[in-house]
Amino acid sequence: MCIVMFFKELTSYVLTKSICLEFRALRWFGQPTAATHPHLLKEGEVTLGISKTEYKSRRTKLFELAKENFKNVSLVKNHILILPSATKLYMTNDIPYQFRQNSDFLYLTGFQEPDSLLVLHTSPDDSHDYHSVLFVPKKDPMKELWDGPRSGVEGARWLTGIEEVYNSEELERFCGDFCKRMGHFALWYNYMKPVHLEFDASVLRHFLKEKRHQFLETTVHLCQKLRVIKSQAEIELMSKSCQVASNAFADVMKFSYPEVKESYLHAKMDFECRMRDAQFLAYPPVVAGGNRANTIHYISNDQIIYGGELVLMDAGCEYFGYTSDISRTWPVSGKFNAAQQSLYEAVLFVQESCIAMCTTNHSLDEIYRKMLELIGHQLKKLGLISAKMKDVEMLKVSREFCPHHVGHYLGMDVHDTSEIPRSIKLQPGMVITIEPGIYIPETNTSVRTEFLGMGIRIEDNVLITESEPVVLSAACPKTPVDIERVMQR
């Protein structure tokens, strides 16, 4: 009997020890992996849906773009591209804000830890090929006790597929050695708006001050040129982000009632997005009741919405690095009155007409000009401006009723790839917003009283394809009939 008990205890000890060792191995990384989060990631994925192969392809394309920029400059054969991660930000003392990785760094590596840095560079032996070098925070048991595990050099190498990985504190030495080995080169670095101030000091010390580089360029436009066209994996993530936000919007509509607080609807949107696996809201949402909807970026969200008023919500979520950005306007009491419905249907007509233009034949600027024209005609139809007004004057007045653009690029950031002009033709793989609005503040004494205090915006997220546009946020109730039906449930 004693022998049996002994072997039972021994077996239990061995199993417990094995589980502990496995647990340690699983906690080797500072972010989810296929080993630690098999319910999220597949083998070979660095982040949800994005493989090591795709990240490597992005780095290769970026380096090729850099070389292409100097193809007619014979003096420039060598390049070094420096892309830092974000660092932690603190609201007070030791209390951090939730960390969000720098989008360009994340796009190229998938690595989620702060205080990291990616270098892409040619070598003295072969200026046609490039090397990827990743700098990451070193393993530190005391800091990991408080802040959670770090991947360290070995973990980062396994996770990202980047072979050459060092501790972040070795960056200064690396920069110095590179200057000595390479002589003259083109330096690519976002020196105008440094992402990481501590790394910035190191980069400046060894590159800018020593003046070893022949040319100094920023990496921003190169990265955005790649990021504006989404891969199939990115499109799937953006579709999911839009689906999550769309379904959350429907639940917020159902939750609305006269005299609800704007903060309640804000909280409901946040809750519903997180319950559908979004990490957080993509930006501080607009939840504007009544006349407050005429403040385009109203985010105080601290007032009461009374019966008979409209509420304008502009919100989206971030789903594993990709954002949605949707706007809807609805009657808090559940039913539009006649004036509200007529103005809403005018905006809806403009929006659907603009969505139909989301093809490779048009640019965002062209759609914007069409939006102003359509708004002008709708204002005439409603009797809000004179039917005899000339087109030039009508367009000017339309800008007063809708002071913002028709849309913007969407992706890892809400206002994504902001350096890509809105004047270029749309291309397959782009995702954009289409968001016309009509705003009539209470101070506008030129319109009939039944329209005063209304602000209506309708915004969808649209994927550009070779043929027809695809509305990724189509699940979000939009027509007056659909909105009222949802709110009666």
Walk me through the structure.
With 489 residues, this protein is α+β, with helices and mostly antiparallel strands. The chain has 14 helices and 23 strands. The strands form eight sheets. The chain has a six-stranded mixed β-sheet with strand order 8-7-6-3-9-10, sandwiched between helices. It has a three-stranded antiparallel β-sheet with strand order 12-16-17. Strand 1 and strand 2 form a beta hairpin. Helix 6 runs parallel beside helix 7 and helix 9 packs across helix 10. The longest helix is centred in the N-terminal third of the chain and has 25 residues. The protein is globular.
The portion of residues assigned to helices is 25-40%
Supply the number of helical segments. 14
Q: Which CATH architecture of the largest domain?
A: Alpha-Beta Complex
CATH top level assignment of the largest domain: Alpha Beta
Structural class, by secondary structure, is: alpha+beta
Provide the CATH superfamily of the largest domain.
Creatinase/methionine aminopeptidase superfamily
State the separation between the terminal residues, measured CA to CA: 66 Å
**Arithmetic mean of pLDDT:** 92
Taking pLDDT < 50 over at least 5 consecutive residues as the criterion, the unreliable ranges are 1-26
What tags apply to this protein structure?
Creatine Amidinohydrolase, Chain A, domain 1; three-stranded antiparallel beta sheet; single chain; six-stranded mixed beta sheet; Creatine Amidinohydrolase; 23 strands; disordered N terminus; globular; alpha+beta; 2 domains; about 500 residues; about 40% helix
